Amino acid sequence: MNKRSAIYILDGMGPQAGGYLYNMLINKANSEYGAKNNDDFPDIILHSVPVPDFISNDRQRSDALAMLKRRVKDAEKLNVSCLSIACNTAHILLQQLQKVSKSPFVSIVSEVVSRVTQSKVKKVGIIGTPSALRYEIYQTALKERGIDPIIPTKSQISILEKIIRNVLRGKENRVDQKQLISIANSLKKKGAQAIILGCTELPLVFPSEYSLPVYNSVEILAQALLQKYYKQNTME
User: Fold this and answer.
1) Residues 189-209: tens digit of each pLDDT
2) Residue 68 backbone dihedrals phi, psi, to 5 degrees
3) 182 membership: H or E segment, kind and range
4) Contact (CB, 8 A) for 119 and 143
5) pTM of the full predicted structure?
6) Which of 166, 194, 195, 196 is paired with 142 by a 20 to 30 Å CA distance?
7) What architecture does CATH give domain 109-217?
């Protein structure tokens, strides 16, 4: 494979999650695709864009969109197989970003919902940022598949925002993990048969073992990107 088409990732929302995704891609290339030598691993462009965040409000969303559109246009000059965003909340902007890109975006939301659908789960709990939950990016997609979404209460969503911002500050702690488990448990009591970690920061805090199946959106995105990458570059 002399002329590889790269995976292009918009990162920076926040950067810790992008780093986690990158490591996940490398580890899975090794364990699932047998990568051993340098040229076995995927060609990855990780572009960390310091956009103003819109985790909980829309005041700076238009500025963030303008910055991301410029980066997507820049990506068109490169040899990329697909684009993705290392952030669930930023998928609010996905349709607008796809309009300025000839290369397809791999949607973290679509990939997660597809995985939930395959598992035949009928009720799933969602934990994520206030904006992602308010815009119902997961709720809408799940309902279209006949799956009932269960979301946290307003007070729990406020707690989630604090936890996510602690991760961004590099200050994740056991208290945050306990609060996350408590929120997940409350969704379980409401009938959730599984939990979606609908924010790319949350896998950095959520325990690796839980009583229900957990859909780690970062891991699912990594698997989808690698599958597309190796399939396309093998055919070239």
Assistant:
1) 999 999 999 999 999 999 999
2) -70, -35
3) helix 174-189
4) no
5) 0.94
6) 166
7) 3-Layer(aba) Sandwich (3.40)
